[in-house]
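thought: fold this chain, then report.
action: predict
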Amino acid sequence: MDQSPKGQASIVLNRAEISIWLDSYNDIFSDFDPRQISTRSLSDDFIAQIKKTQRESKGDKAVLRLLMPSALRKTDEESLIMERLHSFLIPSTSNSVM
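observation:
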């Protein structure tokens, strides 16, 4: 990978930023699924918003930023949510979801 300033600039320019405001972590998951975060289904609305924003962006890669009030954040839940989102949004070649 090109580590020169020009190469780094082109990497940044090819990335879109998707920012989504959350009122709670429940916004990420289906309202109809009562299971724990580790197994709960992702919200169709949440997935659709991510895909829509990605299509509208100019970059071929995106950075997903989930925004919420700091008083509501729970780092232990965030770690699990990040794992779930990574497994869904960045599927392995042997386990393609999309």
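thought: worth noting. The beta strands are 15-21, 61-67.
final: tokens above.
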